[in-house]
Design goal:
three-stranded antiparallel beta sheet; Seminal Fluid Protein  PDC-109 (Domain B); 154 residues
């Protein structure tokens, strides 16, 4: 049983280390098990080379590292999709169950996304060089209407 603040901190660090190995479908069930993103020179790993893939929370969204790097203040998960991709394994991406959109997430053609503005958008475009693989964008659907998305009017 944890009895002191130091023990609680040590316990929290142990949980965060264990959580690094959880698959995405499990990670999204308990995002609080992951540390907040930090721009203060933290070494984040992409899962290659035997290290677990870093997962962090940023502005209420869970992200996974896709390119190993030392963090910098301006390299937030929402700003640099070459480094981070938002994780969402709990929504089907259908008109009835749209995926909540976040900056820096990977969008897939023919999936529906719920923008923070409350409107639903259909992704209408894919990567030209790798169809079906999705595209990570630092924008919300409402910011790319006509280019990557169309608004769904009910």
């Amino acid at each position: 049983m944890v009895q002191t603040k130091d023990e609680a901190r040590a316990y929290r660090q142990s949980l965060e280390r264990l959580a690094l190995y959880a698959p995405e479908a499990e990670a999204v069930k308990l995002p609080s098990a992951y540390p907040q993103w930090s721009g203060e020179g933290v070494a984040y790993t992409d899962g290659s080379g035997g290290e677990p893939q870093s997962k962090v929370r940023y502005e209420g969204q869970l992200y996974k590292c896709i390119t190993a790097h030392q963090s910098q203040a301006a390299w937030t998960p929402q700003a640099v999709p070459a480094l981070w991709v938002a994780i969402d394994e709990t929504h089907a991406g259908t008109i009835d169950d749209p995926i909540p959109a976040a900056r820096g997430m990977k969008y897939y053609k023919d999936k529906y996304y719920l923008d923070p503005n409350g409107k639903t958008y259909l992704c209408i475009r894919d990567r030209d060089d790798a169809p079906g693989s999705g595209i990570a964008l630092p924008y919300l659907p409402s910011e790319l209407v006509g280019v990557y998305f169309k608004e769904v009017v009910s």
